[in-house]
């Protein structure tokens, strides 16, 4: 049932699901997964689903994005942006090393003071988790603070409509978050569906489907991208 510009999905013993996907394809399994999620006891009022929805697998906690405008303008950037991209890659550990060695390129060997500070604010909560799940002590946790994850995580340098320079980040919870998620639910067998095909949708359709929810303040175009 469509209400205003969202579709309302309902099921027995489930909170309502409001899904803003008009004009955007959504696979049936993703719809079923959201209805199942809406049955969880902590859902308040209704479950809101955005147009970039797709069926999920594996686990992450706290994945999110941020864009920050700098004081720079496009004219302040060099003609060749390779040095900037290289500097970001050197400054921020990213990705992971397969078959862990003594030097994991995705972790700090010696976390900087800023990472130590942020970790100190998380330690009490992490201890409560490790008291209950001691296996989490074996994960990359402190060493992954302020590092860049794998997959579709990225650091970007962007320009807006006035050629002002922005930094954009998309990152997730890294190793310890995935480990926490695996304690709850994570299938990795051959029957698990590949989430990638429906994870990438037409951006104009996605924006149009949620036009009543968000206001486009600045369109950003990427000029440098460092992937995890």
* Chain oligomer state: single chain
**Low-confidence runs of at least 5 consecutive residues:** none
Number of domains: 1
| SS summary, helix count | 6
| Largest sheet, spatial ordering of strands | 1-2-3-4
| Measured distance between first and last alpha carbons | 40 Å
Globally, the shape reads: flat
Radius of gyration: 20 Å
Spell out the helices and strands N to C.
Answer: EEEHEEHHEEHHHE
How confident is the prediction overall: mean pLDDT?
Answer: 85
The major β-sheet equals: 4 strands, mixed
**Number of distinct beta strands:** 8
Helix content: 25-40%
Based on secondary structure, the structural category is: alpha+beta
Report strand %.
15-25%
GO molecular function, one term: GTP binding
Binding site for GMP: 152-156
Cofactor: Mn(2+)
Binding site for Mn(2+) 1: 153
């Amino acid at each position: 049932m469509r209400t205003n510009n969202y579709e309302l999905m309902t099921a027995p013993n489930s909170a309502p699901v409001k899904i803003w996907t008009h004009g955007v394809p959504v696979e049936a399994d993703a719809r079923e997964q959201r209805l199942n999620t809406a049955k969880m006891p902590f859902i308040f009022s209704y479950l809101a689903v955005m147009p970039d929805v797709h069926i999920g697998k594996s686990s992450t906690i706290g994945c999110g994005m941020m864009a920050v405008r700098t004081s720079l303008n496009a004219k302040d950037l060099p003609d060749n942006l390779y040095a900037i991209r290289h500097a970001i890659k050197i400054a921020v550990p990213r990705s992971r090393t397969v078959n862990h060695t003594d030097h994991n390129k995705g972790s700090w060997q010696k976390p900087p003071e800023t990472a130590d500070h942020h970790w100190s604010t998380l330690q009490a909560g992490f201890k409560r988790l490790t008291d209950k799940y001691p296996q989490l002590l074996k994960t990359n946790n402190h060493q992954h603070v302020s590092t860049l994850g794998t997959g579709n995580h990225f650091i970007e340098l962007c320009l807006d409509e006035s050629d002002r320079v922005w930094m954009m980040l998309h990152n997730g919870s890294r190793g310890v978050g995935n480990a926490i998620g695996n304690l709850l639910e994570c299938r990795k067998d051959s029957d698990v569906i590949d989430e990638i095909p429906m994870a990438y949708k037409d951006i104009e359709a996605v924006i149009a489907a949620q036009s009543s929810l968000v206001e486009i303040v600045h369109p950003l175009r990427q000029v440098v991208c460092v992937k995890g």
